[in-house]
């Protein structure tokens, strides 16, 4: 099976400033716990070692929380990397939609043929009952929405990373901006695997999936302290596919972040096992075709070989 990895990261923390990896104080409440193992350079050669044995034909670089004062610097760096290494194929850049410079930044991204969209993690709370509609920095914040309006005119999609209990806000955003493709990252973060938690996640996901301009990346579903659990992840993967359909769903590794909870082989072999009963065409959607279409990934040159 060919693979377009719909969510991958590269970084060189010896040359560039990524606060969460470079600062001495770690992020609190990181969803996989201790992430000190990520405080090292991760480049295409490392990714190719991790993905050895798989036919990776392309990859989507997603912003890495690079220095927020220099988002264009990350794109210049990753474009140079791609020219040398033939990975990544395209990129999703960093943007802070509620900042005053958002319109200018999004215009610059739209003029760059390597960029396909942006990611901005809107303000989120830690539990469903704490959601405050319209809170500053959230998807309902008027200032945030003013920035969001500049995506479609610049030909940019939006990668949304938020816990599932904010998906009602996301559905309203999708309804109000039907001209903008919204791609939910990491399966809506179903970290609570209790029956009640999964019920709430599925209901929120179904609401969000009801908007035709929404898609989902099935990724980021590792369970801390356990090897990538196929049986525990099976209902999460199959529910997401059922709600969105294979034409609006795609698999991704989230490497190297998900290397904290699984090997690349465990993740993609798990996807393979879980979807074994689907048709060949449906599986192609999930493993590469949906990502190729939504991110307009050029397929002329295989990404499995570095550029000469």
Automatic annotation (TrEMBL):
Task: Supply the alphabetized keyword list.
Answer: Hydrolase
SUPFAM superfamilies for this protein: Metallo-dependent hydrolases
Q: Which GO terms describe its molecular function?
A: hydrolase activity
Which part of the chain is the Amidohydrolase-related domain? 4-296
The record's Pfam families line, in alphabetical order, gives: Amidohydro_2
Record carries keyword Hydrolase: yes
**Family per similarity comment:** Belongs to the metallo-dependent hydrolases superfamily.
PANTHER family on file: AMIDOHYDROLASE, BLL3371 PROTEIN
The identity of this protein, by name, is Putative TIM-barrel fold metal-dependent hydrolase
Question: Which species does the entry assign this protein to?
Answer: Hoeflea marina
């Amino acid at each position: 099976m060919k693979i377009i990895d719909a969510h991958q990261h590269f970084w060189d923390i010896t040359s560039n400033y990524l606060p969460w990896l470079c600062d001495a104080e770690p992020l609190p409440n990181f969803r996989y716990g201790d992430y000190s193992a990520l405080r090292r350079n991760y480049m295409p050669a490392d990714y190719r070692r991790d993905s050895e044995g798989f036919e990776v034909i392309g990859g989507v670089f997603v912003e890495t929380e690079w220095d927020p004062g220099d988002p264009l610097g990350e794109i210049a760096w990753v474009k140079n990397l791609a020219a040398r290494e033939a990975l990544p194929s395209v990129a999703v850049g960093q943007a802070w939609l509620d900042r005053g410079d958002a319109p200018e930044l999004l215009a610059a991204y739209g003029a760059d043929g390597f960029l396909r969209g942006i990611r901005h993690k809107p303000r989120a709370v830690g539990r469903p009952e704490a959601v405050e509609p319209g809170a500053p920095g959230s998807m309902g914040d008027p200032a945030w929405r003013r920035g969001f309006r500049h995506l479609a005119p610049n030909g940019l999609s939006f990668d949304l990373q938020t816990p599932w209990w904010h998906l009602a806000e996301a559905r309203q955003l999708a309804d109000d901006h039907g001209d903008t493709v919204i791609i939910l990252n990491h399966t809506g973060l179903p970290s609570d695997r209790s029956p009640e938690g999964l019920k709430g996640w599925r209901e929120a996901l179904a609401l969000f999936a009801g908007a035709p301009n929404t898609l989902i990346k099935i990724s980021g579903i590792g369970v801390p302290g356990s090897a990538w659990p196929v049986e525990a992840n099976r209902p999460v993967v199959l529910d997401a596919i059922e709600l969105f359909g294979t034409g609006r769903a795609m698999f991704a590794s989230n490497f190297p972040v998900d290397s904290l909870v699984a090997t690349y082989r465990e993740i993609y072999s798990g996807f393979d096992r879980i979807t074994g009963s689907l048709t060949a065409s449906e599986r192609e959607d999930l493993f590469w075709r949906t990502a190729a279409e939504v991110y307009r990934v050029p397929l002329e040159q295989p990404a499995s070989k570095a550029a000469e």
